[in-house]
């Protein structure tokens, strides 16, 4: 086996990036935008980096199809910081949440420090193996918060509720993966390291009209969205390299057909893998059929075939399949099919699944 055997990277996050983004970023580590300097050693106030920042924000707007009524900002602290920054800014009295997994639970936990939280629906009793679709949203609440894709359990919202109150969403693990109407949201956030770029930057998209609904409490300057928006995400030193790599990854999304192109690409991968699971005597999916995620595919051995786990894992390793171990709270396997993963990698996995016991 040669050292440069192709590795199929199914990691749940940080995760696979487009080769285009990686190659472009490596060039900028040597000679950034013709400066003769390394991107890591140049001021974020340089006109060359300001152009990167502007391009990144412009690409987000273009790909999502949103206009100047939205701010696009790049922050630090991960999606986990958004769990408290969101309610700190916008929870005055009460907010409605759905509890669809560990990340949603954490968001709920943090929000409780700022007001009343109404959990409109939860799938906790069945270890979050589905996304509830029937629930009421109290129209006197300050906002409704949901999680579009539950990374750990492999469940995904297929559509978003119409509601009279501001709609917020944690899209960390499926942003830019499919067509959706971004204009129905007042706030979207996403840690970059699943489907947008490397770790270290968090994308936040805020509808400008939301600022009028800011809670009247002390909010540290660094945690005010408007401050970051007014300063072009440069109120303080931004995570320059993470933003650069994200910008290149967004260029790649655009070159490959934007949301429509990504959706077609991701549908093909998910269909191939789910149909293999469903027709295999060895495996079964863990998520309910109508909640299945096209980003994270979770599966386990059927009870009578559990003894084959080791054999399967060895075969995966030999085929260069990396990162499919399931999250400890679900067990089994999780294949993450983020945008940049080529269908050839899914074909390699499916091939192992179909043949490892011959
Ligand atoms: C990974 C993940 C998070 C946590 O992101 P951090 O950037 O590590 O804070 C939150 N929500 C979802 C849906 C995730 O997949």
Short description:
The protein is an alpha/beta fold and 358 residues long. Helix content is 34%, strand content 16%. The protein folds into two domains: 20-255, 3-Layer(aba) Sandwich (Aspartate Aminotransferase, domain 2); 257-357, Aspartate Aminotransferase, domain 1.
Using brief descriptors, characterize the structure shown.
358 residues; alpha/beta; Aspartate Aminotransferase, domain 2; Aspartate Aminotransferase, domain 1; seven-stranded mixed beta sheet; 9 helices; 34% helix; 16% strand; globular; binds pyridoxal-5'-phosphate
Give the topology, please:
Elements lengths: L7 E2 L9 H12 L16 H18 L5 E6 L2 H13 L3 E6 L2 H10 L4 E7 L21 E4 L1 E2 L4 E2 L10 E4 L16 E5 L10 E6 L17 H6 L9 H16 L2 H22 L3 E3 L10 E6 L7 H10 L2 E2 L10 E4 L6 H13 L3
The structure holds pyridoxal-5'-phosphate (PLP).
Structure description:
Helices cover 34% and strands 16% of the residues. Helix 4 links the parallel strand 3 (94-99) and strand 4 (116-122). It has helices at residues 19-30, 47-64, 78-90, 102-111, 225-230, 240-255, 258-279, 309-318, 343-355; strands at 8-9, 70-75, 94-99, 116-122, 144-147, 149-150, 155-156, 167-170, 187-191, 202-207, 283-285, 296-301, 321-322, 333-336. The strands form 4 sheets. Strands 2-10-9-8-5-3-4 form a 7-stranded mixed sheet, with helices on both faces. A 3-stranded antiparallel sheet has the order 11-12-14, with helices on one face. It starts with 7 loop residues before the first strand and ends with a helix. By secondary structure, the protein is α/β, with parallel strands linked by helices. The chain is globular and about 65 Å long. It folds into 2 domains: 20-255, Type I PLP-dependent aspartate aminotransferase-like (Major domain) (Aspartate Aminotransferase, domain 2, 3-Layer(aba) Sandwich); 257-357, Alpha-Beta Complex (Aspartate Aminotransferase, domain 1), CATH 3.90.1150. Bound molecules: pyridoxal-5'-phosphate. Residues 13, 78-80, 103, 147, 151, 170, 172-173, 191, 194 line the site of pyridoxal-5'-phosphate.
